[in-house]
Write a structure and sequence with these properties.
This protein has one domain: Vaccinia Virus protein VP39 (Rossmann fold), CATH 3.40.50.150. The termini are far apart. The chain is globular. With 227 residues, the chain is α/β, with parallel strands linked by helices. The structure holds S-adenosylmethionine. The site of S-adenosylmethionine has 21 residues, from α1 and α3. S-adenosylmethionine (SAM) binds next to α1 and α3.
Length: 227
């Protein structure tokens, strides 16, 4: 049995070439709105120095660039995801790095903001990653996490489960040709929702103020933690 780090890295390396298409298709394009909303809640400005961790093919960082952020860096451990980001956006070349969230090789207090979209659920050690974020941020710096959650309304939850269990894995398997990735997605979302309290983990890592927002019936959460 491989460890989570190896498993997740191999999975994203394998599905990278289909990732963007499936992302937009399986969420009916709502993922674009979720990223925009998460960045709006974060209130970035012209002095922002942003590291998008688990940047993948770059959609969160690209949105940050679109709304005017000048200094943007990307980090991810999947080489194939980063390669696609590079191809998509020539402005980022030289500013993206293959690194793990749990051990960012940065000096203390170098960033004003860290963003992570749909990445935290996949980290192999979330407390370690949050400590590493805390170290790399300046005072008052913020981490913004956008992540799936389970809706609380019973009807929406049932419909969501039906979609997640019976529709998404089938389409995901056919398009990505990966047997596991789109079964891992619903499994990991349910498990994450049951067992991980991001707000508590941020406080444990030393952050001083943490806010949580639910979007779209609680299908996703935005958690913003300030150092
Ligand atoms: C679901 S994708 C999200 C990509 C992008 N942020 C987006 O919004 O589309 C998750 C990404 O997290 C990366 N990842 C997972 N665990 C990681 C870790 N421990 N360190 C660095 N990257 C990680 C994967 O390689 C993958 O590219």
């Amino acid at each position: 049995m491989q460890d989570k780090k190896t498993q997740v890295k191999q999975m994203f390396d394998a599905i990278a070439y289909r990732y963007d298409f499936l992302n937009h298709f399986l969420s009916a394009g709502v993922d674009v709105y979720w990223r925009k909303k998460a960045l709006k809640l974060t209130k970035l400005n012209k002095d922002t120095i942003l590291l998008d961790v688990a940047c993948g093919t770059g959609d969160f960082a690209i949105e940050a660039k679109r709304i005017g952020v000048q200094k943007i860096f990307g980090a991810d451990f999947s080489f194939n995801m980063l390669r696609l980001f590079n191809k998509k956006s020539d402005w980022i070349v030289g500013n993206i790095f293959q690194m793990v969230a749990e051990k960012l090789p940065l000096k203390a207090a170098t960033l004003t903001n860290i963003t992570v979209a749909f990445g935290v659920r996949n980290f192999y050690n979330i407390p370690e990653a949050f400590s590493s974020f805390h170290f790399a941020l300046k005072e008052k710096g913020k981490v913004t996490v956008l992540e799936f959650s389970m809706p609380t309304n019973p009807l929406i939850k049932m419909l969501y489960r039906l979609y997640f269990r019976f529709v998404l894995p089938v389409i995901g398997r056919i398009v990505s040709k990966d047997k596991q990735a789109y079964t891992y997605l619903p499994d990991s979302v349910e498990e994450f929702d049951k067992s991980i309290d991001l707000v508590k983990l941020f406080y444990d890592a030393g952050f001083k103020a943490v806010q949580r927002h639910n979007l779209t019936f609680g299908l996703v959460q935005v958690v913003i933690a300030e150092k």
